[in-house]
Amino acid sequence: MAELHTVANAAQISTGVPVATAAPPEVLHQIGGAGPLWRSLLFPRKGQRAVEFGRNGSNLFASLKQAGVRIEPRSDRGEPDGTATFDLVLEDRTNGSPPIRHEQIRPLLAPGGRWVVVLEKKRWVGLAGRRILQRARREGFEKIETFYAYPSLRSPRMLVPLDSPEPFRYFLYMAVGVRGPRQRLFALVARGLCSLRLHQLFLPNLIVVARREI
Fold it and tell me: 17, 91, 131, 160: least surrounded by Cβ within 10 Å?
């Protein structure tokens, strides 16, 4: 079972995913780092290329620049400049922005690159999260991971993997507990949704990381 760690400050790393031993992240001595959320998920390194959709200059992804990631602007046609050698395609959909209009996203990425979609709504993400996953599968991404940032994307204390039920159940135990009837009922409903693989739909935010392996 993946471990869940709380994040006390921007220098800490929440480890919800296994660390890639073949290409360890570069140590960067910068104020604030790249943020605990993106550092733990993406291992940003100096010289990586990224293109952002949804919100130009999003403060959510701005911390990646501190790690030396070059976030490049889109062209007037809404397409990224240059060849398809991006390490990251970033899509911020926290303000109701429409999805990327490209017919395909995977060809924009170099081998090993990731498409990162951040979805957040006032109540829960609903079917919008499922549509992102369907698109990633349809385009042939070799590895797709989903996460929940608790309590919010901009102040995450915990990064919860959602692709297997055990980490989410452990998160429920830590966050909700069994202090009273209301908490026990909430935990029971959440565990039921988890058993049905519907828990992703009823969370306020969702992070999808789809990797192109080859």
Answer: 131
87-117 pLDDT, tens digit each: 999 998 886 677 777 668 998 999 999 999 9
Inter-CA distances, 10 with 36, 65, 172, Å: 5, 15, 24
Q: For the chain, what are the domain ranges? A: 36-164+201-211
Whether the per-residue pLDDT at 7 is higher than 60: the answer is no
Indicate the SS3 state at residue 89: strand
Cβ atoms of 204 and 123 within 8 Å: the answer is yes
The predicted pLDDT at position 111 comes to: 93
Q: What is the pLDDT of residues 105-162, one digit of tens each?
A: 998 999 999 999 999 887 878 788 889 999 999 999 999 999 999 888 888 888 889 8
What is the separation of C-alpha 141 from the centre of its chain, rounded to a whole number of angstroms? 15
Indicate the fold that domain 36-164+201-211 takes in CATH. Answer: Rossmann fold (3.40.50)
E strands, 130-178, in order? 143-150, 158-161
Measured between alpha carbons, how far is 52 from 128 in angstroms, rounded to an integer? 19
- What amino acid occupies position 142? E
Least Cα distance to 88 among 48, 50, 145, 40 occurs for 50
Which tokens in the block code for residue 177?
């507990």
Nearest to 74 by CA among 97, 92, 56: 56
Residue with tokens 């006390």: 8
Cα-flanking dihedrals φ and ψ of residue 209, to 5°? Answer: -120, 110
What percent of the chain has a predicted confidence (pLDDT) above 90? Answer: 25
